[in-house]
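Reopening: Penicillin-binding protein 2 still failing for me.
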Amino acid sequence: MRNGAPLSRTPGRGAPQLRLRLGFIVIAMVLSFFGARLVQLQGIDPNSYAAMAAAEGVEEVVLPAERGDILDRNGVALADSVHGKMVIADPLMTAENAPEIAQFLAQRLGIDYFTALERLRGRKEGSRFEYVARRVPSTLANDAVDELEELGFEGIILRDDPVRDYPAGDVAANLMGFLGTDEALGGFERTFDRQLAGKDGMARYQVGAGNRIPLGENTVVPARDGTPLQTTLDRDLQWFTQKVVAQTVQSYGARSGAAVVLDTRTGETLALADYPTYDANEPLEADEDDLGSRALSEPYEPGSVQKVLTVAALIDAGKVTPRTRIKVPPSLDRQDRSIGDWFDHGNLRLTLTGVIAKSSNIGTVLAADAFSQLELVDYLRKFGLGQRTDVGVRGESAGILTPGESMTSQTKDRVAFGQSLSVNAMQMAAAVNTIANRGVHVTPSLVQGSATTDEGVTVGTDTAVETRVVSEQAARQVARMMERVVDENVGVAPRAQVPGYLVAGKTGTAQRVSEKCGCYDGSTTVSFGGFAPADDPRFTVYVVVHAPTKDGGGGSIAGPAFSRIMGYTLSRYGVPPTGGKPSRLPVTW
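Support: Ran it again with your exact input. Result attached.
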């Protein structure tokens, strides 16, 4: 202190400059560090650090949607989804041993070796997620991965991925279709793929060094499962119908066969059977020609079942009655050709009922002389011939029906008794059903309610269309005429009877056209179509057998199959006999 006052302390003049120098040194050191790091990244080891950067990216994982079931009319699954797995590889862990792992998976899972090899190695640099196989049964996938781990291979993981299953094997397989690895390949699976497939979801997350970054991007779009498709089919009836058709085809050495069972009143298809068929769970083991439905895709000449359509039209138009008398000669010369019957005979005196009961071509042609070509074709088109049924099966044939204005009189004669036109089995079943349904044609259905095909066509029972073709009286008269076909005393198909029930039906035998020459090849198509109870129809059944190698016609080959299918259907649905009296319409005069 000086003079009692404190001494003042003057700050050191070098202190601020010292702090400034220290600050510059720190900044220089930081900049040097970043500069050195930049040199290292860009010049010393660029590839390794680029790989590390790529590894710190975004991965996308598919969240598979569960495909909608295909159900029968009672809700029983014809196609459903069961637990399965997708096999996923981390190429950074599998690339080194890719050949060995690919060979193992190809053998165990039945996948393509080269595709697996490519994915195990990674299709892009730094990839950590590659699908190797989809929709693998859980047990098979789990066993394969366990064995890989036992062999010392790492980098293969599993995630849930539903597998399509067909619980009843070959039941309705020709209609169900099947799935490939990534797409629907036939039948309802393909036709209604958008509805059944739903939409896969997706998970996106950020990864670094192979691990998910907790605070990185994490986006999840949930899967939207597919919508079920309910059919009109009855699984048990479908199974029985297929067995009957298969036994018939095999017993007579035929090439193929089909059968259709319709609910007479609604047109709902309770069964649609094809043979040969296949197990929808093993489509690759089947012949390619057997994968679709011949009942819809294979046109053929219907033969004499067609006669009931011709006669129904004539009666409706007031041209004839069931008792109309017709003189039937041994043969009938028309232009440069002669028309004969399937059996040899002299001059016959048949009623129109007798023409149907005996299945006379000549008698049908003589009756049809009352019609012009235009009139006959107009009626047949109302019966649904010459146009697709559009029941929701891809590849359906419309058949062939020559327009009336361009049809010759010779062609009209043959069309009247079932030649020179072609149909598919569903068309013909629906046409016969028109007579059973009191003269009203109802478009057949395979789908309950409504569903839209991938081509934008809405089908199903909700869209069924009813069209009056012939009067109720005309339909009833024809039904009584058809009862005489199965009469053991006068008809050609007594083996089509169903014990306890009145049955109305008609046989068919037609020459087959060869695809190679466009000419008749000597083989035949035989069929039987009918309904029961004849006096109060409930079901219509149509059976067709192509190219049998043993002697027989529609009555002896298709008739017994009809009887078995119709008998089972009536019993299954608890339809009692009506107790009605059989037709006694005269067949001769």
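Confidence is low (pLDDT under 50) at residues 1-11, 49-55. If you still see a failure, please send the error message rather than a screenshot.
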